[in-house]
Amino acid sequence: LGIASGAVLVVHRGNTIMGGGIDVRGTLRANGTAEEPILLTTAASPPTPGSWEGLKWFAGAKGQIRYTTIEYAGINVLVDSARPRITDSSLRYSQDVALRCTGTATPIVYRTQIVDNYGNGIEIADDARPKLGNLRTSRTDDDGDNTILNNAGWWVYHRAPLNVLAENNWWGTTNSSTILANINDGRDVPGYGRVVFDPFLTGPPGTGPTQQPNIALITSLQALQASGRSVAIYCSLSAPARLQVRVMNIAGRPVRIICQDRQMAAGLNTVLWDRRNAAGARVPAGMYLVEATAWSQTGNQSRSLTKVNLTP
């Protein structure tokens, strides 16, 4: 789907667009509501990360997305030398990156969840300078309130020369060292700018179309190679839930479902993987993704990702 320069496309609340990709050179306005969000997703069944082209804003393009969930693309949202607004939305389950900013891009990202992606959460390159949270002006519609966490790669990967403000966001922790450990910027590679994340929120902001069902069912997920023959997967739940655990390669392609629709108690649960794929063959050494999905008795869903590096 292409929106030519000078053209305007309006996507109304409650609509779903599946597959292909959306290239914006004109104006896109996707105006969902909390009760009727918009969904941009893959047409693949089952859904697979990287199975569609995502949403792309090119130089001079305009518009906004509000209460919109974008999922399962290679790059969920690419902003190249444009300045759209992304508000009250959710960017999740991307294969490579949820939000990539290039050229002179300056998108405003406000009250949005960038979570549960299989690669990086946010990538910044060239002279891009996204507005991820700015408490230094009188305006309040760019104050952050984003949730940025639980991405399998870097939560923010910054390769542009200037500092980027990312104040007043929730990173899933109140420990600044933990936040820094998930950001790669000029502190790691001299010559690039830094991500300014302090002050940060000390709890979830509680907005976005999918935060309520995802906020606290899975409280932690860890996978450890217990021996040469098995991997122990530790999943903590805040309430009893049905649990699915699956393993994927680093590209997000399925390797094996370890457990499916298994009732688990609140607290710490352990699932073992014998390092075999769905065909029963032993998988080679390397990095793998472990995805846990839990469904509560009230129907709420939570998903979490972690990585495990298998040695021979």
What proportion of the residues is helical, as a percent range?
A: under 10%
Termini distance?
46 Å
Seen as an oligomer or otherwise, the chain set is: single chain
Q: Mind telling me the C-alpha Rg?
A: 19 Å
Give your account of this protein's structure.
By secondary structure, the chain is mostly beta strands. The protein is built from 2 helices and 28 strands. A hairpin with a 4-residue loop joins strand 24 (241-249) and strand 25 (254-264). The longest helix has 6 residues, at 176-181. The relative contact order is 0.10.
Question: Can you tag this structure with a few keywords?
Answer:
single chain, 312 residues, mainly beta, six-stranded parallel β-sheet, 2 helices, 3% helix, 45% strand, globular
